[in-house]
Amino acid sequence: MTLDRIHTSHAGSLPRTPELIAANAARRFAADGFTLESTPEFEGLLTDAVVDLVRRQRELGITIPGDGEYGKAMSNAVDYGAWWTYSFQRTAGLELTDFNPILAEPVLSAPGNIKLTSFADRRDWTRFAEAYRDPESGIQIGKNATAFPSATGPISYTGQAAIASDIANLKAGLEASGLSTGFITSLSPGSASRIGNDYYASEEEFIYAWADVLREEYRAIVDAGLTVQIDDPSIAENWDQINPEPSVEDYRRFTQIRVEALNYALRGLPEEQVRFHVCWGSWHGPHTTDIEFRHILDLVLGINAGSYSFEAGNARHEHEWTLWQDTTLPEGKILVPGVVSHATNVVEHPELVAQRIERFAGLVGREHVVASTDCGLGGRVHPQIAFAKLEALGRGAEIASNRLFARSGSSV
């Protein structure tokens, strides 16, 4: 990529077409009850949808496009979990059991011994229980395409054909649109391990088992010449899933295991083809119990990635841009801050987007900034709004580029 402008990307998920949602909903489950079977007709529909999506991204000003996570099944217009549940389709050793991480019984933690509780027992969810239960409050959790299984035996990667399809579809889109590079998202070991475990002797052993599984997917993506984006909201949002609130020191120790497991999975892979995405969960809740970014920023930067994607455009985390006034970005690394957000239906003004970009460029250098979204837009906001936000992102980056690069005598 040329460095004569601010490049643009997004955090992965983009709205599926009505046809793709309907086709996913019509797919049959295999005998295990959670693996969605495919057909040549479905695969053809998927390829065409991705090719059209890449074209649309380019037209809106996105210079580093993705496949929109279209290969990760979404059977409903509102689905906050497709980035995670797709992994069940690509992993052996899982079965449906009575355990559900969303609705399981609460789990209490103690100092020096913290554990994840159920999603329904999150501190933000319990603090605002009335709002979360009120269907008219605007808080939506959505509906997942599949049920949550548990590990009942040794897990292994079975997604070779699925990731090959994702790669081929994105490459077809890039070629059709005359673009040279793009990215595909893949789950982190720490996020993947938040399902039931009836086989592995310890939590740490389970996390490392997932690292071995997911490494295959990471390698397939980078070997194809694409960027792999590691999706790991758990690094930040696990904090809210621990009851009662732990000490920061305990949480950092808890999180360090997940960082080390991810680095183990990434060993030997070219950092310039690895993007790490962290967020505080994409559901539209109050988020008053989010951990402050300052408490985990060094852990994030300790992940062996070439670029770091994070929320910087919503009302709960925008103020944290000031952390970069006192944080030295490691040499050669790139920031991918969210400058438009999934958390509101308001479409950001391009001038505001430009100002947000310029903040980061002023702190770490224009060549170290790629403008992006806070989190995935697909399944979170209406498609018409999502694509308007991408257009605002592209226009805002153009405004910022004209100002930032004109200062040295060049222009976009």
Automatic annotation (TrEMBL):
CDD domains in alphabetical order: CIMS_C_terminal_like
Domain annotation Cobalamin-independent methionine synthase MetE C-terminal/archaeal: ranges: 177-390
SUPFAM superfamilies attached to this UniProt entry: UROD/MetE-like
Q: Which InterPro entries match?
A: Met_Synth_C/arc, UROD/MetE-like_sf
Descriptive protein name: Cobalamin-independent methionine synthase II family protein
